[in-house]
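I would like you to sit down with the record closing this message with an eye to the fold:
=====
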Amino acid sequence: MADHQLLVIGAGPGGYVAAIRAAQLGLSVGIIEKEEKLGGTCLRVGCIPSKALLESSERYRAAREDAADHGLDIEGLTLNLPNLMVRKERVIEQLTGGVAGLMKKNKITVYHGLGQFVGRSDAGVQVSVGEQTVTAERVIIATGSSAASLRGVEEDGDRIGCSTAALSYPEVPGHLVVIGAGAIGLEMGSVWNRLGAKVTVLEYLPRILPACDAAVAKEARKILAKQGLEFQLGVAVTGARVEGEKCVVEVDGGDPITCDRVLVSVGRRPHTDGLSLENIGLSTNGRGCIEVDAHFSTGVPGVYAIGDVIPGPMLAHKAEEDGVACVESMVTGYGHVDYNLVPSIVYTEPEVASVGLTEEALKEQGRAYNKGRFRFAANGRALAHGHADGFAKILADAETDRVLGVHLVGPCAGELIAEAATAMAFGASSEDIARTCHAHPTLSEVVKEAALDVGGRALHR
């Protein structure tokens, strides 16, 4: 007899949410986590700690640069970096402790250790955890992803390392080089720039945020450069090493860059190392992902996979939706995630957020569309807030007016994008958004005005 009806390997957002939903549906559930704390990369060394640092660093910058404009004279302002880090750890502790509490509340058995497939028996799939072997009727692989490395870059996990190291620098670097102009690189670069570091961002492509709408990325670069981030685009990094108390970054066709620390932020890769997939006849594709069908089945009886280990965007909220859909498909026969409507957010200041198709994608498809734009500079709440950079952009089908994509760069864009995702999930037209009463004064009025502009009738332009 199996120990559990469902066993989940990995207690990140995808894994622990899948476990909770399965318990809600009446299954006997176990979950395996190799780290001491639950919550995965997101809660421990990813989304949550980086957002804590972003919030603290922005408050420091605002006190230093914006307070006088609000009639606040602050004398003797200093940075207490150790206390800033203590707050970050306190947020992590609260949330990881909360996940542990949810496991207990839902009667989910937690196994600490590295989960490795042993094989199959009449009772189900066998997974070892340390000296113990656990058998389950079904197993979900939810082991997430890890930072990708770059050939020639000698990471030591300290002066040259990934975002995990950048979350806990013991002092503000004099000069930080960030390799990669994606979300993680720009967020962590922003943190240390606000705290006083010179930050140079090196990007192989000729633009930042390659997955974003080009107009939004261009605007974001302009704003971030104004804040002090230095960008070198179209640059190939060929190596990086520690030399004494400094780091040296080699670039193709250019002079070496000497700096104090290097953040390597060149994407993430599925984390399946150590799972012993071969013991159940499972392999990964050329990109290291586990291929699954529409119901998240790997093709190996009783074994499923979700989140960052399968193809698709590597986002915590996408993993959560995968987990719920996977479990509901097992129990009820139906579970679905619309991957066209997974929002993406970059938590710089201003934030960058999008859902749906970019203008470039529509052009590539040869699809006729109409476009509406509206700047935050014409919004009363944004001006009162003191952050009025950026704009909202809505793309709608030229024939049906159905919204195909919404892209924002501006204050609280990450919160505003939820309206767009909801509207698109129900097949809304730009007219639907434009005719919906938005409270005044709010930042959401920018979305309404952009929707009005699709039809050429923005009111406050």
Q: What stands out?
A: Residues 4-146+270-339 form a domain with the FAD/NAD(P)-binding domain fold (CATH 3.50.50.60). The two ends are 69 Å apart (CA to CA).
